[in-house]
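> forwarded from #structure-qc
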């Protein structure tokens, strides 16, 4: 009896990464948000852990800077909460919601499901952390039940 080698013995096949369909008129685009979301959320978590306990300012604006939803909301002595609750030493953990708490019950919730990039800018007296969200186009958002802000910025002044 001759035995054959199994080429795929012990090999795990990866599933294709899910994409989000964005439609504008008759044109559609497939955007792989999950990989960008993982990378951006991990970077955001690192930044927020550094900022915990410090005073920060939050602002958000629409694409093109046309409309501010928040402008320089101060969150003194920043405290963080992650939902679902983070397990210890879980390297693959990605929160769905990050809550930033300040004093006097001031809070801002960040929904990470459409987060695609985290950028950093340093000026003379402060740091800007810019969070970019993609919710489709203004005329045809992916999710109609979410606010359509394009960028959330976190400002930290140097000590």
């Amino acid at each position: 009896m001759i035995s054959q080698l199994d080429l795929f013995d012990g090999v795990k096949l990866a599933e294709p990464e899910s994409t989000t369909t964005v439609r504008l008129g008759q044109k559609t685009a497939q955007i792989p948000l999950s990989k960008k979301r993982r990378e951006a959320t991990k970077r955001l978590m690192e930044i927020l852990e550094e900022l915990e306990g410090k005073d920060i300012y939050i602002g958000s604006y629409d694409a093109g800077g046309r409309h501010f939803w928040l402008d320089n909301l101060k969150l003194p002595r920043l405290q963080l909460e992650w939902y679902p609750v983070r397990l210890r030493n879980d390297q693959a953990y990605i929160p769905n919601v990050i809550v930033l708490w300040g004093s006097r019950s001031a809070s801002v919730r960040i929904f990470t499901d459409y987060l695609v990039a985290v950028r950093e800018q340093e000026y003379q007296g402060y740091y800007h952390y810019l969070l970019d969200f993609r919710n489709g186009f203004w005329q045809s958002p992916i999710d109609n039940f979410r606010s359509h802000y394009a960028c959330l910025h976190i400002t930290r002044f140097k000590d």
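QC bot note: The beta strands are 20-24, 27-31, 56-61, 68-75, 79-83, 97-101, 107-111, 115-122, 126-133, 151-157. Residues 33-51 form the longest helix (19 residues).
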